[in-house]
User: Fold these one by one.
Assistant:
Number 1:
Amino acid sequence: VLITHVCHHWRTLAISAPLLWTDIKINRQSLVYAFLTRSKQAPLSIQCRMAARDVLKNSRKFQAVKAALAQSRRIRSLLFQYSGVDPDTGDVVKASPELGRYEFPELRALTLWLDGGYDTTLPSFVARGSFPKLKSLETRMYDLFNLGPAIRSAHLTRLKLCAFNGNNSLT
C-alpha cells in the first residue's frame, strides 16, 4: 500500500487500519504474510493464480496460497485460478492441488478457473469445504457434477458454469 511510504505518521496510521489490508492478490508472495497480519480479523478478499510448477516445486507462492486459505474463516471472496499445464513440457498435470480442508463460514463469492485442460476433480478445499453463505459461484473447466458442497448453499443466487475457456457458458 503506497500510503505507507508517505511519511512515518501515515505509515503508522495505515499499518494500524486493518481494512486497508484485506484485498490480497497472491502474486507477490512476500506481501501476503504482511497483509494477513495487518488485516487482523477483518474479512478478506483473495485472488490467487497458481500453476502446476508452483505445486510440484512446493514454491513460496504455493506456501502463500496455503497460508491465505488457512484464514478461511475470514474469507468473503475467493478467486482461485490454476493452470494444470507444465510450462516445460506442455503436458497437463494433476489439475487439483492438495490444499487441505477448510470451513468458509463467511464466503459469499467463489470463482474457480482452470486453465489448460478440463478436470473432474475440484481443489480439495472446495470438494471438502463448507460454504453456508455462498451467494455467487463461477467455474471454468471444472466438472459441475463434483461441485457438491459449493452448490448446496441455501443462499446461492448466481451460478455461472463455463466450458471451453469461457466460450460457452450458462449463467
Number 2:
Amino acid sequence: TIQLIRNGFLWFCTIIAAFPLASFYERPELQYLLPLSGLALLVSGSFPIKVILASRSMSLFRVTTIQLIGQVVGTFTSIALAFYYQNALIFVVGAILAELSRLVLYWFYLPGKGNNFSWHKPSVQELLSFGKWIMLASACGFLGQQANVFILGKYLKPETFGIYTVALVLA
C-alpha cells in the first residue's frame, strides 16, 4: 500500500514537472513523455510483496528470470516499434510494457500469497518518520549525480547529447 502510494506521488511529480521541464529544455514532447514514462512507476508500485520475500529467502532464480524476461519484452518492443515510428515514445512504451510483463509474471509465477491493501497505523508512522529522510537523501543524491545530464541537456545539440549519454552509460 505504501509503495503504491509513494510511486503514485512520484508519478504525480512527473506530471507537475512535465510542463516546466518541456519549457526549460524547449522540447514540447516532454509534456507527454514524462507523465507517460511515470506510469512505469505506478506499475512497479503494484509489484507483489512476493518479490521481496523471494529475494529475502534467496530464491533469486525466478525473480532474476522474470526481470530478464521483462527486459527482453521492453527491448524487443522498442526495437520493433523503432522500425515504424522514429519517435522517443517507443522507449516509453517499451519501458511500460517491460514493467507490465514483470508485474504479471511476478503475480502468477512467484510462489506465495498475493498482496492485499491494508493500513497498519504504527507501521506507517514508523516508515514515514524514518523513510522521509532516506527519500530526501536519495533525491538529493540522484540530483547531484545527474546534474551533468540536466545541465548539458539544455546546452548541447540533441545529437551530441545522445552521444554523450551513450558514452556515459558505457563508461
